[in-house]
Amino acid sequence: MQGFGNLPRDWFLEIFLRLPVESLTRFRCVCKSWYALINNPKFISMHLSYNSSNNEFVLIKRCLLTCLGKKVNMFSVVSSKDFSFANIAVDLPLYKKEPYLQLLGHCDGIICLSNYRDAIVLCNPATKESMVLPKSCLPCFLSNPNLIPRTNALGFGHDLKNQQYKVVRIVSYLEEFGDHSSPQLSRVEVYAMGTDSWREVKNVKVSANVQYSPIPCFDTHFNGAFHWHAMDYNNNEVILSFDMGEEAFRNISMPDFPSIYDHSLYRSLLVWNGCLALIVYPAKGIEKSFQICVMENYGMKESWTRKLTIGPLAGIERPLMFWQNDEEIVMEGIDGQAVSYNFITKQIKNLRIYGVPKSFQTLTYVNSLVSIRRGNQCLMK
Amino acid sequence: MSSSNNSGKVLKLKSKDNQIFEVEESVAIQSELIKNVVEAGCDIGVIPLLTVHSKTLRNVIEWCQKHVDYVEENDSGSNEEEIKNWESEICEEGNNNGSDDEETKNWESEENNNGSDEEEAKNWESEGNNDGSNKEEVENWEWEENNDGSDEEELENWESKFVDVDKDSLYALLLAADYLSIDSLLERVIKQVADVIKQCRSVEEVRQTFGIKSDFTPEEEEEIREEISWID
To answer: What global pTM score does this model have?
Structure first.
């Protein structure tokens, strides 16, 4: 077996690309050249690239009920290749029992979680590295002591311009006993992975108020910006977007259909075929139809185009995300099961993942070696 | 075994240890190297493969033959086996490798705990026993996709057995596949080496398997192992 020891480095590169993160992490210390190769940012980037093309997953966060009727959170990954799934152990204090746990986003193997109150966590489930973000840099009270800060919106994404991963937080200061429908003041801060503190984004205009609601899913990272469901100051429903690189907000108009006053309809924002897509569907009903509208030119209201309607489908609660080359959509069933609907064959596949109804959240996910503490690494693309 | 449906031209390949192998052209040109030789018109007489031992060459030829056969079989499209597999798959429960036990337990207890969400009480049916409106959908939900199914799987199984050899043979295959430029073999061998590493249970085992000597001092190695446990 002496042969293999003499294999040129190029060969090991090819072999290592096909190794899971767990093996690479464990065997880094075999020898110095292995260590150097596995830690090399260029290699980490190639490995991530390889996984993105060959080993893509859907990450599902859901709630399960224990025998005592308590809700616990569970993360699972579903393989795009063969639909098999596995539960992943995410070793975080803020994880199992947190009732309001939200998945903020995923970038290059790092996921961001929060309870929207006091804790935000970054985690790489594959390397098992995790980190609680430092405390906010924004003041707890302003000159008017009646205004209390509250986290209005959170987002996590790429800043491709500066090669950073960032968490953005919009904080609103509200009258303690007043009307909370329009916050008095909003301030924004950003945390860049690999640094040790938040930094306020000064001189920025928050152009709309985020309407927080975990159901239906809306928060989406796309095209270098994070998007939320919001109301602008003229009471129009808009998509508020924060460009991670420019650190600036803009409002993106929703299509005129359907009427925002129709409260029986939910709107979910997803990404489909490289565009933002809005899915409109009834909030209630045993049978639902899902209308898909795509914004073909990013940011241009006129480019919203009705693409297709799925259904009516029986027993489906809501859409979660597109996958399988955008030919299928993961959805949540009325009884709390994850299914996948294929537009072409019109078949529904049971993914056999069950949970408390309306507790599902999904994201695309890949395993990577990207380190949270080392922050700035070679990003893909 | 297939009957060759081309001109049936036969090439002579000579191994490192001077053994001659007669191989059909359609099989031999799975190797880019040999394909180039043929296209350049240099395939008269014997093609010497200076770095490939006869033992390895024999295996490589077997690989190439299998892949030529597979392509031919699929073109002629024999569907009978496919249909048989499809039918049996519909009847059997699909497997996944997630640990279902916890979910099943929780799911069962969920059935008794639907008080918490009044709105959902109506829709909260126990799994498998749906009300009438869901019935039509149940069949669809149990659909197991079966694409090319058996043929592809059969090839995969054959390939897995093929690369399941001792390390020296694997190494020889790797070098041969590279020298001869046979992408399918190269890809499969690389994957196999990766799988061998994956299955090692310790760093020491990896070192032994690959004949690698550690050039870390014990202290350095300890430091690296510590790096891995991220405790906040």
So the answer is: 0.79
